[in-house]
Backbone:
């Protein structure tokens, strides 16, 4: 990937060549990606295209507990199977999908998979994972290979966010985004689930389980200060659980202003100081998305 | 991957968490990797381990021209086949291997592959590539699956560097390292090969063809100024060929002092100025590997 970006002083930088790999200088591409607009404005992105796989399989499996489901995701990834997607939905998320779409899926923790490759390989991987699931009390393992059937099955996952919002349409969703080392996912998600189940708020869990990354949608009424505080308390506890397991406060959504307070615990003051020095060197007048990402109390 | 690094002011930074992905702040990991010691000293590296594949196949195939061999590497990568290694050796490199190891391999451009996965998948990929090779005048396609046979066959590639050095033991090797977008590899390698074949110096080509990255070993007598100049001329022309194809002057060996002069053409003065600003912000006294990577004439 290569970027063209306009820096605060008006310099237009190209961050690399079109070669697949390069050792030519500092990696400005990665520095600017994830800087959330604080170092410059990205004006062009060159991506490497991937060939569509010749075949894919979509599979789904039910579990008694989120821990079992997470254990299967972990075992699948650790077995070296090249699963292209593995998503975990808890029973509340499945209930939301049933309500939104008039479905009658079993309201239990569920894993969804996509396997890609040649026809034979995708099927071989599917059957290997079916076996792993059976070893962890998985039930109702189904898989489909036909194009329309795959689209129909994956729709369950694709529409999960909207089904979650629709569950209590008068409420807002606070969306959390912790990510932990894969080996810790089952523990982190189990601890979080106990917390969420004990809350008076409706909470849905959806995880990119293959990455150790999971989101919860905490539905709250923004006009009720008590509900907002409860949502924040849950988010806060989950972040601290993740950080205590050497995870991150944000797997993919970014820092913005909401996660700034966790960065010192996650990365240490020295890292934040280094980030602030880079920010000050490239944007001395602090004109690019000021007040974001780096806490204001960090001194350079 | 996470680093611990000591910065010029003595700050010890941790560049990330142990989560597989994170959006928590600037990517200091990637910034420090490839900075060639100019921003700090890496004192700890945490890597994610990969599971060894359950099966692998090693294959080899001969070609009339380096262009045909490169075309097969390109077609293989573009076909979506998940080849784990694809290496191209030209006829001079094969001659060096024959001389060093008493082998009698056909002295023609040669591709070597490694395929990984389940047993069925690795074999399936192998046969797909055999078909691609046949479409590009490939001959003598062989593959092995047994552990000792794989080791024996891959040894040819593994010992290529030493065989190259041994070819003319009184000479030194200047090793080049350009990398181009994969679609341009066949052209770049063909143009380079004409240049190398026309030189009085012995030149060997070895390519990480799947990445579009190739090395030449140019053997020269360092006591002969004329030979050194000829080696530099060849290197220079290959770098300019690669840059004219939106490639890089260094795919993996780094900049050091030797490649500094190409960075402006590859990345533009604005990118170099940005790098120098980062260097000056983190190392204001220029105590970390001074004089490397960023050309001295770059002004901040």
Residues:
């Amino acid at each position: 990937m290569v970027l063209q970006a306009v820096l605060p002083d008006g310099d237009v930088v190209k961050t690399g060549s079109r070669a697949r790999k390069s050792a030519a200088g500092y990696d400005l591409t990665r520095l600017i990606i994830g800087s959330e607009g604080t170092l410059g404005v990205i004006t062009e992105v060159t991506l490497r295209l991937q060939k569509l796989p010749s075949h894919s399989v979509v599979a789904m499996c039910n579990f008694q507990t989120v821990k079992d489901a997470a254990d299967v995701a972990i075992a699948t990834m650790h077995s070296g199977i090249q699963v292209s997607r593995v998503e975990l939905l808890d029973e509340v998320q499945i209930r939301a999908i049933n309500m939104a779409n008039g479905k009658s899926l079993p309201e239990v923790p569920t894993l969804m998979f996509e396997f890609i490759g040649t026809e034979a390989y995708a099927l071989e991987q599917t059957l290997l994972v079916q076996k792993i699931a059976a070893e962890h009390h998985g039930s109702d393992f189904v898989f489909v290979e036909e194009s329309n059937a795959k689209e129909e099955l994956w729709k369950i996952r694709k529409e999960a966010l909207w089904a979650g919002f629709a569950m209590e349409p008068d409420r807002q969703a606070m969306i959390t985004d912790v990510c932990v080392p894969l080996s810790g996912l089952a523990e982190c998600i189990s601890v979080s689930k106990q917390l969420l189940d004990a809350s008076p708020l409706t909470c849905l869990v959806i995880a990119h389980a293959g990455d150790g990354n999971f989101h919860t949608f905490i539905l709250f009424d923004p006009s009720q200060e008590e509900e907002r505080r409860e949502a924040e308390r849950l988010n806060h506890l989950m972040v601290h659980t993740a950080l205590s397991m050497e995870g991150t406060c944000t797997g993919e959504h970014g820092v913005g202003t909401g996660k700034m307070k966790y960065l010192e615990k996650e990365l240490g003051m020295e890292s934040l100081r280094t980030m602030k020095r880079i920010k000050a060197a490239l944007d001395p007048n602090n004109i690019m998305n000021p007040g974001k990402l780096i806490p204001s109390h960090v001194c350079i």
